[in-house]
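Hey team,

Filing this mostly as a record. A colleague (T.K.) asked me to run one chain through the structure pipeline before their review meeting, and I want the input and output archived in the tracker in case anyone asks later how it was produced. No errors, nothing strange. Just documentation.

Input sequence:
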Amino acid sequence: MVKPNQSSPQQSGSLGRGYRVALGPLVPPPVVVQCDDPPSEIAPAETGQSWDHSGLVPHRRKGRLGVALVLAVIALVTVWAVWEAVFRYHAYGIIDGHLVAATSPQAGQLNSIAVIEGQRVVRGQVLAELTNTAMDRQLQSLTSELELARAQLETDQVSLEWRRASQADQFYESLGEYHTLRARFEIEQARLEEMQITTATTRTMHAASAATDHELRIQEVTLHGQQRQVADLAAAVGDLADRVEGSRGLITEAADPLAAARARVHHLTGEVNRMRQQLAECVVRSPVDGIVVEQHLRVGEHSDASQPLISILDEASLRAIVYVRQPASERLAPGDRVSIQAEPTGTLLRAQVERLDARFTRAGPSIARWYRAGEPLLRVYLLIEPDDTEPITLRPGQIVKLPRGWR
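Output structure:
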């Protein structure tokens, strides 16, 4: 019977909550059993090693069960560790690749960075932008000077066109005057020739007393006046001819009076374009398809010319180098496709055997713990096949494993 608050040193055991169980004389001594709820009736067994009530278990059996469970866990962990370290993977290796530095040909302050580490980029993609304050001011000055030179050239060109038009009008006017005066000169020249003949005839007649002195005098005075008029017309025609030729030279001149101004505008245009091209080079673009591995500067920091800004792992050079034991080296040949596991993510990658090394070597320090000391190993170079569906970031020196069932 269960009796509250009554106990005997040899015949009762504590069950918690103030209850004690009368056990009677037992051999061996009674085992104390803890119980959350007071049982309605507990009867001792004949041997004292087990109980009829299923909810009560001796401490000795529980201890044995716990020890067995711990030993089983230790055995499983040991087996898994041995499998993981010895039997699961056939070979180990590292990721190798060529790092390309994206640099700026111009010095400046880093204004922005458009990529992050681990991001996949393509050739020509904008990576960062720099600001060169001195070049910006120089470009503004050259641009203003170019605009002023162009405006001056346009003004001079308008003035030249107006002057040429005026000279052309003057030329054609002078040419018309020349032809008119030339015609008059020819008429007066013909009249002079007639007067010369008439005067000669009058002189002959005067010698034969057929003409009077007065008639001869009148004829000679008229001839002299005509000679002076013809001479004046000849001089005027010559002067007008010179003026016409001068006007003709102005409108047909081969030399460009604005050649110097045009050359200045051309020079300034070239300087502005060159400066803009230099500023455009402050936009840093990716030289290859690859993965951003490292950013060497932060936004706001100053960059010198040709200073590396961002390091990119060239995907074309990306490969894995695994060290295969001598017996298994004959199972691989160039062109074979295998699966490798990248650490620490455990991602499986597809790769193709590029080539096998010509001689055996030793494992590198990063993977030597998986091989026996001095064990001859053959380096196998694997080309990583890109996977656009699940891009993964690989870095030089990263550990890779070749599973035993690599196919």
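Quick notes for T.K.: The helical segments are 59-87, 133-207, 213-251, 259-280. The CA atoms of residues 345 and 403 lie 15 Å apart.
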